[in-house]
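To close the section, here is one more complete example, presented without commentary so you can practise reading it yourself. The ligand is adenosine-5'-triphosphate.
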Amino acid sequence: MSMLTIEDLVVRVRSQDGPRTIVDGVSLDIERGEALGLVGESGSGKSITARTVLGLFPAGSQVSGRIEVDGFSVLGADRRGLTALRSRRVAMIFQDPRAHINPVHRIGDFLTEALRRHLGMDRAGAARRAVGLLADVGIPDGERRLRQYPHELSGGLLQRVMIAAAIAIEPDLILADEPTTALDVTTQSEVMAILGELRTQRGMAMLFITHDLELAAATCDRTAVMYAGRIVERQPSKSLAQQPLHPYTSGLLGSRPSIETVAHRLPVIPGRPVAAFEAGEGCAFAPRCGFALDRCHRERPPVEHRLEGEVACHRHEELTGVLAGEPIAAPTGAPVERSVDV
Ligand SMILES: Nc1ncnc2c1ncn2[C@@H]1O[C@H](COP(=O)(O)OP(=O)(O)OP(=O)(O)O)[C@@H](O)[C@H]1O
Ligand SMILES: [Mg+2]
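Output:
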């Protein structure tokens, strides 16, 4: 049984102009201990998809489809079931740590709350464990940090505190929503290394959300690419990066500069991304796609099995081998020297 199964997830929110679809038929699965990257531009529905796994929906939204965590049905769950899910099985690292931590509580209160409430630890035991967790994420002077307030910590440090809180409950599945986007490159690779190590040590499955396709491909077993509320391609990371099947994937690979490969790659994707409710009849990517035919503007492409994954593009067979990928970097899960910013 998969650790996470999402099948045909549709999320509609209320708006002044009527219901708006923001996630439009997403299906994905993650095996026990596996890491799946979820990549796409802003507004494609990545965060909403991850939040629905915890049963967190925008107020007044309609949600349909199936979400199962290790066989437990999230969409059918009552409050008690959802509390148990969030407190013991699935943890989320939210996109913006400052928005998800109470600014008037000390770091120690934040970290020990879950340990005391859900694991039944006493105050002293929880504090000791919290110091250990901070050490695990590369923060050596835990006792001092526990007494500090969120505003006293840098963004990178706070992100590590969030990771420590997420692993405190020893979850089976971690939903990491752009855990490194706000960080400088060095801190970014340290945080990725920490997540990679923790995953290997504890056998956690992970949904890793990012804008950075190459980072996802280098750190996750498989990668899914999302556009306008749908998954347009899903492959083992290596093949996705070397031989993308969807023009959007290829465009994302091309939108990072690289001296050796720039000559034969697609230019940066023109135009702006759209949300699901802004997409027309046909393929949502067609208005930005250099390969679009009439049919692409009229008919929505179905998701088809291809190689070891899936793709939704009318022209995927003709385009095989035409779209540019690039050699994938070595996995960055290897331990790196850790330093702590203050
Ligand atoms: N609470 C909400 N109510 C209504 N619409 C929402 C809500 N949250 C998000 N949306 C809309 O849903 C779409 C998808 O949002 P989501 O936050 O999932 O995107 P994302 O892929 O995570 O983007 P980013 O990369 O910027 O984080 C967007 O168009 C967004 O405006
Ligand atoms: Mg997001």
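Once you have examined the tokens, check your reading against these statements. DSSP finds twelve helices and twelve strands in the chain. Residues 185-202 form the longest helix (18 residues).
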